[in-house]
Amino acid sequence: GDKAFAQFLTDEIQEEKKIQKHKSLPKVSGGWELEVHGTEAKLMRKIAGEKITVTFNINNSIPPSAEDDTQEGQKPDEQEPELTSTPNFVVEVIKDDTKQTLVLDCHYPEDEIGHEGEEESDIFTIREVSFQPTGESDWKDTNYTLNTDSLDWALYDHLMDFLADRGVDNTFADELIELSTALEHQEYIKFLEDLKSFVKCQ
């Protein structure tokens, strides 16, 4: 059984490498620096007295596919729908002269993806906003967290503009999907390769 499994994985890895769009990770425009630690990626940039970081994790970032029931009628040569990774991402804005970091938790609403051609709507939304002590890795639950569900629209729009002024806008969000999808695919191939070595190890 293991031999067949290893053979299957070899074929699968070849297939995945064939459809891999990016041999190296795509860049995000606007002078963002990228750091990747396994499945977590961090984008950083500095602008006038501020440091902006955007962190996301590719685990569980691919929305469940609604296309599952169409598989049976597919002809063998039809491509499967492309998987897109749309991770939640956290934007931190740190001002040089304060001890606080403004943290905005953003995500891609599931129903927004793929409805282009409508009015210029934002492809991501801000879900929560809070202040956290700068430099502390553990965020405190005791800090007030603003949930945007019940938020005044004018305030919400200002928060979106605040992000856009710092380079986190629709273009950025699009490029982040591209980067995350490439990273997810790269990690998936690596996982298949590790699994193959593991299975072959007698």
TrEMBL record:
Pfam families: MAM33
Gene3D superfamilies in the record: Mitochondrial glycoprotein
Taxonomic superkingdom: Eukaryota
Keyword Hydrolase annotated: no
MF GO annotations: complement component C1q complex binding; kininogen binding; transcription corepressor activity
GO BP field: apoptotic process; complement activation, classical pathway; cytosolic ribosome assembly; DNA damage response; innate immune response; mRNA processing; negative regulation of mRNA splicing, via spliceosome; regulation of complement activation
Keywords assigned: Acetylation, Adaptive immunity, Apoptosis, Cell membrane, Complement pathway, Cytoplasm, DNA damage, Immunity, Innate immunity, Membrane, Mitochondrion, mRNA processing, mRNA splicing, Nucleus, Phosphoprotein, Secreted, Transcription, Transcription regulation, Transit peptide
Membrane topology: Peripheral membrane protein
Signal peptide: none
Subcellular location: Cell membrane; Cytoplasm; Mitochondrion matrix; Nucleus, Nucleolus
Protein's UniProt keywords contain Transmembrane helix: no
GO cellular component: cell surface; extracellular region; mitochondrial matrix; nucleolus; plasma membrane
Region called Disordered, residue ranges: 58-87
InterPro entries assigned: MAM33, MAM33_sf
Residue stretches in coiled coil: none
PANTHER family membership: COMPLEMENT COMPONENT 1, COMPLEMENT COMPONENT 1 Q SUBCOMPONENT-BINDING PROTEIN, MITOCHONDRIAL
Protein family according to the UniProt entry: Belongs to the MAM33 family.
The protein's name in its UniProt record: Complement component 1 Q subcomponent-binding protein, mitochondrial
